[in-house]
Design goal:
- The chain has helices at about 5-15, 20-35, 35-55, 60-75, 105-115, 135-140, 185-195, 215-220, 240-250, and strands spanning about 85, 90, 95, 125, 150-155, 155-165, 175-180, 205, 230.
- It contains 9 helices and 9 strands.
- The two termini are about 45 Å apart.
């Protein structure tokens, strides 16, 4: 097992048992042995901080641990506003730019270093930089840190197009139109519908992607979208009333919206 895979195995174990300190402390030992002693100490200090806080019997020790944790966080370059618990930042949601999928191994290394908490995330959103390419969909589902994700947000982003000032007040503009910036295109949705990893999806957001009736039919025909509890699709897409009815028949009126 290479070093990257070792890191990932530790992180999977940590977030598979989120209430246990032992996997975190074992990972801290691994980090110290591999050249990251301050990151290791940060995890140990934060784990002890939680225990002392829960006991509520040693305020002096608690004060020392809070100060030590803050000092380590500063040296490690963590933003002061970023909340941590037992050595890891809050995990949800994962926010991914499509361009990062061009080199999956480099992306995995960056996540292990900069966002290890993503291995515990259950929600994922794609940034509105560009639409995913169809061949990037399987890559996304195969990444080690997306294996536990159940909420997938591929929603596009509507943009307001405005005219010049309508009055002498330059802050007053006239609205011309609203245009969607897709995050996933019809070919990408067709690939998603045939991806085995789609079995993990419980919430799927596909709004504002200019999807058509043929694209929606690919969702209806999918063998893998079997665990959906919410499918957001209506806004910003264009398909027939008949296809909408077929969608409801397949997934249920309480799921589709």
């Amino acid at each position: 097992m290479d070093r990257l895979a070792e890191h990932e195995a530790f992180l999977r174990a940590i977030f598979a048992a989120p209430d246990e300190d032992t996997p975190r402390l074992v990972f801290a030992d691994f980090l110290e042995e591999n050249g990251a002693p301050e990151r290791a100490e940060f995890i140990r200090v934060q784990c002890e901080l939680e225990r002392v806080k829960a006991a509520g019997t040693d305020p002096d020790r608690l004060e020392l641990l809070v100060a030590r944790s803050a000092g380590l966080a500063e040296r490690l370059g963590f933003p002061p506003e970023l909340p941590f618990r037992r050595g890891f930042a809050r995990s949800n949601p994962v926010l991914i730019a499509a361009r990062e999928l061009a080199d999956p191994d480099a992306f995995r290394r960056r996540v292990v270093t900069d966002h290890p908490e993503w291995y515990g995330a259950t929600a994922l959103t794609i940034e509105p930089v560009r639409a995913l390419f169809p061949d990037e969909i399987p890559v996304l589902f195969d990444l080690p840190f997306t294996q536990q994700v159940a909420e997938w947000d591929f929603g596009g982003h509507p943009e307001e197009l405005t005219a010049g000032p309508l009055t002498e007040d330059a802050g007053t503009f006239g609205l011309i139109d609203v245009r969607e910036r897709p995050v996933i295109n019809p070919a990408g949705v067709a690939v998603l519908a045939q991806c085995r990893g789609a079995r993990r999806i419980r919430t799927l957001v596909l709004t504002n992607n200019r999807l058509d009736s043929d694209t929606v039919r690919s969702l209806i025909a999918s063998r893998y979208l079997i665990n959906l509890t919410r499918l957001a699709l209506y806004d910003g897409n264009r398909f027939s009333a008949r296809v909408w009815q077929q969608l409801i028949e397949r997934f249920g009126e309480n799921v589709v919206g």
